[in-house]
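EFMT2 methyltransferase
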Amino acid sequence: FPPDSSWDAAYERELQTFQDIGDAGEIWFGEESMVRIIKWLEKQKVPHDSPVLDIGTGNGVLLIELAKSGYTNLTGIDYSPSAIQLSEKVREKEGMADVKLKVEDFLAPSAELSGFEICIDKGTFDAISLNPDNAVGKRKQYVRSLCSVLKPEGFFLITSCNWTKEELLNEFREGFEILEELPTPKFCFGGRIGNSVTALVFQRK
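Tokens:
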């Protein structure tokens, strides 16, 4: 065994674990949530060269689907270097060289992260909200970051499994107005019908 093979094995294990967790996470935000986003962009006739940012890209699969649908100006960020390594692997496998991927903390975005027409979040705002350390401050910072990276009149598509429509309207009232709610699967529990997932489109004022 050359000495670096054990390091490789550890790295593979880490990626494998990430893939397993990533796949578990995809239960909430699987195929149908990607289809919902792409359908909306197409219905809205968003030009294929509009700059799109995927906030918390994870395995990068949404960007790959967007690229397959003809979108050409795609950026994915994630604060986890393993996530970006994984999405780079997915990008290479799919041959999508022009999808841009960066390790970025959205709560402290770098200066070059700006001028996007479309920002998409599936589960990242949820994860920030669950942070035990100053969740309220982090949510406010998220909204400030969003205002700095998204152009005026740009669109923000958020998919959440923690927040109701009313709560999200409240969180994003500074600087954003709601355009529409996207249909999500409904579930029935104890005779009450509810949505396990909320998907909203906001426009930056």
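Strands lie at 52-55, 74-78, 100-103, 116-122, 150-160, 176-182, 186-189, 192-195, 198-204.
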